[in-house]
Amino acid sequence: MTRVVPNDFSRREFLWAMGGLGAATAAAFGGWGVLEAMIPAATADEWHKAVCRFCGTGCTINVGLRDGKVVDIRGHEDGHNKGVICVKGSMLRSLPQIEGRLTKPQIRSNGKLKEASWDEALGLIAERFKEIRNQHGPDALAFYGSGQLYTEESYTANKLFKAGLGTNNVDGNPRLCMASAAAGYTQVYGKDEPPGAYEDLDHAECYFIMGANPYECHPPLFERVMRHKARSRRVVVICVDPRRTPTAEHSDIHLQPVPGTDLLLLNAMAQVIVEEGLTDDDFVREHIRFSDGQNTVDFAAFREFLKDYTPEKVESELGVAANEIRRVAYLFARSRATMSLWTMGINQRTQGTFLNNMLNALNLITGQFGRPGATPFSVTGQPNACGGVRDTGSLAHLLPNGRAVTNPEHRAECEKLWGVKPGTISARPGYHAVALFRAMEAGDVKGALIMCTNPGATMPSRERYMRGMEKCFTVVSEIVGDSETAKTASVLLPAALWCEKEGVFGQGERRYQLVPKLIDPPGEARSDLSMLVELAERMGYGELIKAKTPNEVWDEWRHFSAHSKYNFEGITYDRLKALPGLQWPCPTEDHPGTVRRFVPGDPFVRGDKKFDFYGNKDGRAVVFLRPYVKAPEQCTEEFPMYLTTGRVLEQWHSGTMTYRIDELKQAAGPARFHLNPADAYRLRIAEGDDIEVTSAFGTVRGKAVLDDAPREGVLFAAFYDAKLLVNNAVADWFDPTSKEPEYKVTAVSVAKVGA
Ligand code: SF4
């Protein structure tokens, strides 16, 4: 297959081999040190346990220091990642020194940003925010955060805005990547967050990987799959993806559906499972409730609903043959333990919540649940989207620990725990991400604090929302001065990153881990927590935001959690310093943490129950009847192809960090449009041609790569490169339940520039 032509082919191929599947190979040929030997590092004087800054795998690492600088990174042998890290993690040592670090606050004056003191910058922000609130009400203010802030930072911002300023306009980039997973879990189990754990990767017999590319995006997890597969001939790996990704190449079965039709596949698999008697009848009878979304229905209604989704009825629209659907349905149901894994390919869809419902449903109706290796599992993208944002309730419709702003009891509980007057927390959900940037564009939100994220590059239809940010009094806390978001700032605040500050990351399997402060930030840069604490003080909320250091905030937060089924009161800083993380629930300081939820071992399971879905009043998990609806973007004569976006091995998200690290930049090269050779031939496009990609939302130009990974009719581009900015052309439709945008399906036209 043809791949991107790298600047340095052999180096990139080596990084690929070592970074994905090859981690296992690396172990066989002398371990990860093979790569480390290729990337010379200075000898460290001291080593400290920490956590990788990048993805939601949340690898435990050892950070080597010399002369106050990070000089080396190794995987931590006792971590859940068992010493394995990917190429991005191995290059963390260059992160603090990336070019363009901000060292002083800046204030825009006459269109230009000029250096200012912290006193001037924070004084101006407090004054303008107070003015806006007094003139236009609290909902004219907003906070837009990140799954990359530490938990203590998200918790404090959420508390300040919801219980202090009086607005629920608190949202963040997890809305763009995993809101559908959170909504899916909450509807099914009554509680968010995965029931299983990474440990299940070591035990499954069938892996059903859908809308995920762990070879590139979560390499240590896929390495675990491959390692287990190498030990057992019974193991089968199924990959569902419109692209033949490296994950698909290393799978036993690859289904390549038409983008946007994936619910047809899940419903058809359920139909086969039900009609062929592959359900676990005892589990269904005792632990499942069926629902059409409004009312409880019975199993017969579920069976009737599925009759519209026989493999033969869906195969043509889905683009997958009926016999293949039957085959994977059998493998899924009949294996000794099936683990389904998914991420943005499922979440970033207008039917993202429904898809999440159905992925959970397949594991439930087949009884593939609660045993080692048998679990549904949504893989997450950011290092702290789970712990920092989902758990703290730092989204516009949420309050901490799974509470909802629309629920009067939940508001009252939070008001009591936070010591504010009854009625302080607004009953109105705030603006979710897309609505928030639209409100900025409309002038309804007039002041916004954006921390640790780059919506200027990552929002779909981004040019539209750049205008919104420019119109607003936008405060941006950033590590560099030239990100797309920083360009819109009225006030730019220099932020400390990663081990320049202390805090807790909560990765994708409910595991909290501590990142210690190991080095000083550059110049006057400081932690986002210290910015929030001082802003609160200046706005008159010093009493509300009493906890001022990371440890103080963490203690307040863990005590808060004790009033919920998320209880992690037993996870103290001292324990986190000593251990490579703990998984919640973890109610006491002698509790070992919980690997699997809703089964014995989970402290909330009642009596001697084998399964207890305690998030729902009747103790049952809900299986929904979810009808397939076509994606809003359909191919037409004007826009005959689908654009889909994603990530590559060497780069992370918008590239603010990884595209400034030379080795990773060279390895990935500039982002390009990947086009199936059959489409290229039809469109008279050759490798390296400049092409123009146009949707109803915008136009982007970039170079073409001929690559048979995308199925015919599908164009792929990664979003790490600020020169390509593919999100200019991405549609901003969103899931009506989760409000997560549909990055994966945009109808586009493709033409050679100047043709
Ligand atoms: S980027 Fe993700 S997979 Fe790679 S080392 Fe960091 S946490 Fe692990």
- Rounded radius of gyration (Å): 25 Å
List ligands, each type once.
iron/sulfur cluster
> Unreliable stretches, pLDDT < 50, 5 or more residues?
1-12, 19-37
Percent in strands = 15-25%
Q: What kind of assembly state do the chains in view correspond to? A: single chain
- Our count of domains comes out at 4
If classified by CATH, what would the architecture of the largest domain be?
Answer: 3-Layer(aba) Sandwich
Q: What's the mean pLDDT score? A: 94
Biggest sheet features: 7 strands, mixed
Distance between the termini: 27 Å
The tally of strands reads: 29
> Which fold name is given in CATH as the topology of the largest domain?
Rossmann fold
| Name of the CATH first level of the largest domain | Alpha Beta
Spatial arrangement of strands, main beta sheet: 5-4-19-18-17-6-7
User: Can you tell me the overall shape?
Assistant: globular
The helicity comes to: 25-40%
Helix-strand category: alpha/beta
**What is the helix tally?**
28
Structure in a nutshell:
Helices cover 33% and strands 17% of the residues.
How would you characterize the overall build of this protein?
This protein has 755 residues and is an alpha/beta fold. It folds into four domains: 9-97, ADC-like domains (N-terminal domain of TfIIb), CATH 2.20.25; 106-171 and 385-548, Rossmann fold, CATH 3.40.50.740; 179-378, Dimethylsulfoxide Reductase, domain 2, CATH 3.40.228; 641-752, Barwin-like endoglucanases (Beta Barrel). Helices cover 33% and strands 17% of the residues. It contains 28 helices and 29 strands. The strands form seven sheets. The chain has a seven-stranded mixed beta sheet, sandwiched between helices. The protein has a six-stranded mixed beta barrel with strand order 24-28-25-27-26-29. A five-stranded parallel beta sheet has the order 10-9-8-13-14. Strand 11 and strand 12 form a beta hairpin. Helix 1 packs across helix 2 (22-28), helix 8 crosses helix 18 (352-365) and helix 12 runs parallel beside helix 18 (352-365). The protein is globular and about 70 Å long. The relative contact order is 0.16. The model is unreliable at 1-12 and 19-37 (pLDDT under 50). It binds iron/sulfur cluster.
